[in-house]
Structure formats: structure tokens, C-alpha cells
Amino acid sequence: MGQRMSMPDLHGTYQIVMLGLDNAGKSTSLYRLKLDRFVQPAPTVGFNCEKFKPSSGAAKGQTFTIWDVGGQEKLRPLWRSYIRQTDAIVFVVDSTDAERFEEAKLELHNLLRLADIPAFVPVLLLANKQDLPTAVAQDEIEQVVGVKDLGPNHTTRTLCCCAVTGEGLDDVLDALHELIQTSRKLDKGKKRQLR
């Protein structure tokens, strides 16, 4: 008689997808988080994937698998397959590229309208490249990307950062953990109302 296999315990394991337009700094952010140093990545043609297990903070003991998906226009249709089982979306915006703010807004809003996306999935907006003199401030980034228009099903938070230096990235995993917990409570509350 064979031994019965059991499913792995996924408690405390989060699947995160990191999206944004090309050249926003997604891979630089990912590897700054992972290695705590600057890595000059090549444009992502497909995806990068890294696991994190913080040893301190609100997210201590949790496991995060972060999927960094290429942002070139030809790769954006692939985003849909990565969001099906995600616990949160990290959307990276180049704070200096005002000419593409509308494009970033359109991509984020279209993504959140997809039927494939889990209900109540939270969004962490990373306003990257804040070290540069032409960077737009957090409140303006939130306005031009339309964070308030994402709707009540999407808990959001914005963090300003510089992926090259790592400034502002220290709080990313804790912020994701808190957003996911808040969203799960909202989801449970909504399900109770529907009974």
C-alpha cells in the first residue's frame, strides 16, 4: 500500500507578480531586493522569478515568490497568464517618464478589468527613479496613474523608491504582506454578505 501524498502547506506563501512598462525598473527592483546591491539587468524577454523569506518585520517567516514579467508591448499579453493565481500585483512606474504615464495608467486599469484576475487583489505601486531631478512626486504619480479609480476591490499603496540605490525598497515585503492580509479580510467580508 503506497504512502498517500499530501499537498504542501501554502500558509504564509505569497505569489506576487511584478508588472509595469518596459524600462520602469522592475528587474532592477527585484534584484536590489534579492541581492541588496545594484545589478544592471538586460531587458526582460519573458520573466525573472525570485523567492524571498524575510527574517524580520511584519512579513517575517512568510515566503514571497515574485514573478517579474517583461514590460515591452509585445510581452504585455503574457501578463494575463501570470495574474491568475497572484496574491498581489507590484506595478512599477518610471517617475521621470511623464510621456508614458497615460500608457502606464491604461495598462494597469485594463489589467484589473480582466476576468482572470482574482477578486480583491491588492496593488502596490512603486514610483521608481525618485532619485532623479525630473521625478514626479508620489501624489502626482497616484493621480496620473489613477490609483483612486481602481475601485473598492483593490487595496492600494504607493511607495516611492530608487531601485538603483535601494532607497524606499526596505518596506516592500512588509507592505505586500499587509496589503494581502487587508484584501483577504475584505474578500471574506464580501463573501459573508453574499450568503
TrEMBL record:
<comment type="similarity">
    <text>Belongs to the small GTPase superfamily. Arf family.</text>
</comment>
<feature type="binding site">
    <location>
        <position position="27"/>
    </location>
    <ligand>
        <name>Mg(2+)</name>
    </ligand>
</feature>
<feature type="binding site">
    <location>
        <position position="71"/>
    </location>
    <ligand>
        <name>GTP</name>
    </ligand>
</feature>
<dbReference type="GO" id="GO:0046872">
    <property type="term" value="F:metal ion binding"/>
</dbReference>
<dbReference type="InterPro" id="IPR006689">
    <property type="entry name" value="Small_GTPase_ARF/SAR"/>
</dbReference>
<keyword id="KW-0460">Magnesium</keyword>
<protein>
    <submittedName>
        <fullName>Uncharacterized protein</fullName>
    </submittedName>
</protein>
<keyword id="KW-0547">Nucleotide-binding</keyword>
<feature type="binding site">
    <location>
        <begin position="128"/>
        <end position="131"/>
    </location>
    <ligand>
        <name>GTP</name>
    </ligand>
</feature>
<feature type="binding site">
    <location>
        <begin position="20"/>
        <end position="27"/>
    </location>
    <ligand>
        <name>GTP</name>
    </ligand>
</feature>
<dbReference type="GO" id="GO:0030010">
    <property type="term" value="P:establishment of cell polarity"/>
</dbReference>
<dbReference type="InterPro" id="IPR024156">
    <property type="entry name" value="Small_GTPase_ARF"/>
</dbReference>
<dbReference type="GO" id="GO:0005525">
    <property type="term" value="F:GTP binding"/>
</dbReference>
<keyword id="KW-0479">Metal-binding</keyword>
<dbReference type="InterPro" id="IPR027417">
    <property type="entry name" value="P-loop_NTPase"/>
</dbReference>
<keyword id="KW-0342">GTP-binding</keyword>
<feature type="binding site">
    <location>
        <position position="44"/>
    </location>
    <ligand>
        <name>Mg(2+)</name>
    </ligand>
</feature>
<dbReference type="InterPro" id="IPR005225">
    <property type="entry name" value="Small_GTP-bd"/>
</dbReference>
<dbReference type="GO" id="GO:0003924">
    <property type="term" value="F:GTPase activity"/>
</dbReference>
<dbReference type="Pfam" id="PF00025">
    <property type="entry name" value="Arf"/>
</dbReference>
